[in-house]
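Hi everyone, sorry if this is the wrong subforum. Our group has a chain we'd like a structural model of before ordering constructs, and none of us has done structure prediction before. Sequence below.
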Amino acid sequence: MTSATASIPQALTTFRQRGRWRIVDIVVASVVGVAVGLVYFGWDQIYAPITAPLEAALPGLQSLTYGIWLIGGVLGALIIRKPGAAIFVELLAATVEALLGARWGLMTLESGLVQGLGAELVFLVLLYANWRVYAAVLAGAAAGLAMAINDLVLSYVGATQSFAVTYAICAVISGAVIAGVGSWLLVRAIARTGALSRFASGRSEDGRGATSNA
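Answer:
Right subforum, don't worry. Here is the predicted structure as tokens:
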């Protein structure tokens, strides 16, 4: 058996261990999800007058601010560093937002699932082993793209091509900057307080995620 072949079972074992959720992971992910859900609902109340000038300047430009609705998935994944964390936190945040009376009703949950999945796929491609800033940026951008496609299909049926392109590009930029860079900086700030000492995200400065979460 070659050394490369022998290393495969060890790699699979490491991946399974890395993906095992602890009780503290569930609790903290739930707290993050609820907190982000409150932020989402607060943003629901004020986003319209804030984005109106952007939309008036160029239809589709309003999605430059929509990255706020994408924070949950990226933030949850960066903190928990486990498979499914992005979807779990984003969907829980959307659930809290809906229960508080979000104007989109059950569609809020569908959006949360799609956006969380967008971020989750990036971390999956990276095998949940890289948590550097560029990984967060890619995850935020993917969540933004997922949001844009979902919105264009469900909420902007018949939109012009120029609107669709502008909306999608701005959503990707917003996701990358607000949800991506913003979440990465927030995790680093929280880690400095010692609140994440039981997580690899609270002990790793380089963001590679190779350390154990035990």
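For your construct planning: Residues 22-202 form one domain. Residues 112 and 149 are 13 Å apart (CA to CA).
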